[in-house]
Each structure stands twice: as C-alpha cells, then as structure tokens.
Amino acid sequence: MKTATDYPLFLGAESEVGVAPRIAVLSAPLAATVSWGGGTEEGPLAILQASPALEVFDDELLQETVQAGIVTRPPLALAGVSSAEACRLIKAAVAAELAAGLFPVLLGGEHTVSGPAVAAMREKYPDLHVVQVDAHLDLRESYDGTRLSHACVMRRVAELEIPFSQVGIRSFSREEWELVGERHWQPFTMARILEQSDWLEQLLAEIKGPVYLTVDVDGLDPTIMPATGTPEPGGLFWGEIIALTRALARGPHGLVGLDVVELAPRPGAEHAAFTAAKLIYRTLGYLFPVQK
Ligand SMILES: [Mn+2]
C-alpha cells in the first residue's frame, strides 16, 4: 500500500507496513524566538528526510520496530502564526494523538514547542514527570520580552507544578542557577554526570510517574550533533543518551511521549539529522517490542 503525500514520511515508504499505527510523528516547525543560529524551522523536515536512510532492522534490538505501526502527520502550519496560537495548535495536535491511543513523537522546531506538548500530556497523565535533555536549564522567567521563548520552556513546566529532571546541563545564567538553589532542584549537569557514575540510577530514583522526554539536541556533544543554534562543548555522547532512553522506556513508570527539538540543519553536518532519526527509532524500539 503506497500513499502519496506532499511531505516526507518517517522511514519513507518503508513505514507503510499495513498495520494500525501505534506511534504518530508530528512536525512543529516553529522558530519564532531563536536567539542565535536560526534554522530550527527546518529541523522536522531534515529528520524526516534523513530517516529513510535508517535500517528498519534495529541493530541492537534485532527487530523491525517499523512493524509496530508508525504514521507521519502533515506538518503543523505554523509559519506566520503567533507563538500563542502555535502553542494552541501543538497542544491540540498532541491531545488528539493521545485521545486516539497513539504514542506521540513531536519534532521541533524551537524548544518552545515542548510546553504545549507537556500540557497536553499532563491532562492524560496527572502524575507526569518530564525529563529534559539539554545543554541549558531553560528556566528564565522571560527572554527577549516573551514568556513563550525556547529559553523559558522549563520555567513554564515548573509553573504547572510538573516534576522534572534536567540532564546534560552546561550553560545557564546566574539567575537560573540561583533559582535552582532556592528550589533545591538538582540538575544532572555534565559536571555531575562525569563525577557520579551512578547518575542514571539517581535519575530513575527521582521519577515517580510516567515520563515525557524532551530532547533538545544541544544536550548532545557537538561532535555528534553540530547542527544546532548553540553547540556547547562537553555534552552527552551516543552511548549515554541511548542508555538514558533505554532506562526510561524500560523503567517502572514508562515513557509516554517524546520530542526532539532545536535541530537546525546545516550543510556538511547531515549526520546530525540522521543521528536524531536513529535516536527516535531506537527509543521507539525499546517501547514497542515486535515479533522477530
Ligand atoms: Mn538548549
């Protein structure tokens, strides 16, 4: 069965395996408040375009995860709309997938897109826990005059009183660090991760509910993920992030939603979009074991 669409599908034609989908890939190409190095509006398309180059047979899981059923939705039409309206559209899109019983994978776009996704997730999962992979705390009250900025997304999550854990952190303002101290938050900074070999066990111990994972790709080391606006040195490597998603997916509370944001494609760094696509596919594999 082959369906013609005017946008690329995750895994291309190989995604069309003729089973009812259990996973929905959503594109939110929002880039309203990017601070340095734009291009995140191209991120979803780059990930979708890179994805057919993946082997559908997963080399760790030894299964064709595609058999679980993956549907790719048309990109949300966010060009020219206000950030507030974009957030309404994203929340409604994620809520619709949850209502239909599908696992949402949201592709950004700037990190702002995670706010409305988390809000939709929490309506279905009242004890939701957010795990954020990021170089940045994203805890500013406002940035460049708006509260709906990529630099504020976790502050908005905190205001919803949703518990969260931050992983890969290595860039923040004095004000953000003071807030962390006041609230007794304990982010998994890269310094802490390097120092404490049991950081992943510590992370799992603080999770008390189903997890929504938001991956700002700048949490990864820029040698494996150069295509992002702020390529901070000293980030997570492939083995570390895969260990994280494996542990979350197989953890006692499960993983109920995922986003990958802030990919800004650039010539000469095509492996970055491929890496993002493989991260998504591997993580879905942990969640959806299929008959071998
Ligand atoms: Mn970031």
Describe the structure.
The chain contains nine helices and eight strands. With 292 residues, it is α/β, with parallel strands linked by helices. The protein has a single domain, classed as Ureohydrolase domain (Arginase, Chain A, 3-Layer(aba) Sandwich), CATH 3.40.800. An eight-stranded parallel β-sheet has the order 2-1-3-8-7-4-5-6, with helices on both faces. The longest helix has 17 residues. It starts with 22 loop residues before the first strand and ends in a 5-residue tail after the last helix. The structure holds manganese (II) ion (MN).
CATH architecture annotation: 3-Layer(aba) Sandwich
> How many distinct beta strands?
8
Gyration radius over CA: 18 Å
| CATH domain topology | Arginase, Chain A
Briefly note the structural class of the backbone: alpha/beta
Major pleated sheet:
8 strands, parallel
- Give, in spatial order, the strands making up the sheet with the most strands: 2-1-3-8-7-4-5-6
Low-confidence spans:
none
CATH uppermost class: Alpha Beta
Order of helices and strands: EHEHEHEHEHEHHEHEH
Count of helix runs: 9
Q: Overall pLDDT, averaged?
A: 95
Beta-strand residue fraction: 5-15%
Gap between N and C termini, in Å?
22 Å
CATH homologous superfamily descriptor: Ureohydrolase domain
Bound molecules: manganese (II) ion
Helix content: 25-40%
The tally of structural domains comes to 1
Question: What global shape is seen?
Answer: globular
